DNA sequence: CGTCGCTTTGAATACGGTCAATTTTTGTGG
DNA sequence: CCACAAAAATTGACCGTATTCAAAGCGACG
């Protein structure tokens, strides 16, 4: 499963095959940036000037279409890198990154980055790996949305989110993100109404318990079945 | 527009900022591989062992879903790299690459690649850029399919293909690819029937002329309007 | 306690999918 | 060169999923 957040900075793919000492040196070149809920790290189409690693808080990555529609591509939780396009030259951010709560991130500016890539070529190789994972994820999500119906896509998304941020509770796995029906709809490419109906149905089947911006998975296996079963 | 094929090898993003001499050295380490129509360069989920640059022919990149459905992610034409995941360690191909006609490609195996990346760190940076473009393309296509209806998606795809491989003829721009209705359907995430109906409608409006595995764009502006207009 | 935002639910509708039958095109072999 | 088979494309009828619009319910928070 791609984009699993890691718990320690040193475990980031970006630092693969680097020594503790090298990682320490790289980390020293970062600055810390705190931002408030609602603020943006960057906006879609801005020149990609910095690369981030989120260490605290939650960040939404969204993309707007020409006609003003919006889709939610991902929720970033600690510790996960974002804005990796900045590792390439002369790119613009393909998404906007907005803090959903107070956040802290490590930031490397463009010039620092290119120095780092010069000194630690392995970082570039690691960056390729990160990007490769992104490509895979989106190719797969593209394929999914092109071939699967809403119910299945939603089941997959919820399982994915549970995997990413789920916390075990006595009654089941809770998705620890404040996601509205609208947010979920934007993630799977449907409407908030269809999401609401689907969740209600699952709730009546005892699979989940849904609340306001909250989902508790009572019976994961049931969801998996919906996500994978034939037809 | 990402993935524009280039006409000369030296213009590949992969070779950005390298000298003629360096490029020559890199090219010397490639071997040439010819394959027949129908054969595969690699299959989805195979370990990514080589990176390719197509110099002759046409290659289809497809992805299968668990339940056997298939979608066509891209048609590769010369000169375009594919299988770039091999530039990252320990990845598997996310797609299958099948020759649609007799093809020639330059091939770099995994071990050669990592030597090259060591000698020419700039190549890794360039690879990041390539991957970044892929990510952008698929994020955008994902957003499109999630928010736009079939007619618009199809219009966009045809314009994209025309941009990529279109050849001017006295009567209009011809998409120079043997794409069946089924192929187009797989690319935009719909059925061959809907594609057929939509093309017929456009034909009756004088926008295009459609034939068996052939599309001639008579009135590009009309398509652009469908691709971009509000609502 | 009232307002605001999120959520639910119903009814009507439309877009696009499915299935079946037919036509057109292409390529092949006699 | 023609005839025939195979593949691709078209078209119609029907139907189902998901969207749209409207209205009402619920919960959080000042």
TrEMBL record, chains A, B:
The keyword Phosphoprotein does not apply. Residues 14-119 form the Cyclic nucleotide-binding domain. One of its GO terms (cellular component) is cytosol. GO terms for molecular function: DNA binding; DNA-binding transcription factor activity. Keywords: DNA-binding, Transcription, Transcription regulation. SMART domains: cNMP (SM00100), HTH_CRP (SM00419). Residues 148-221 form the HTH crp-type domain. Pfam families: cNMP_binding (PF00027), HTH_Crp_2 (PF13545). The keyword DNA-binding applies. It comes from the Bacteria. This is Crp/Fnr family transcriptional regulator. It comes from Bellilinea caldifistulae.
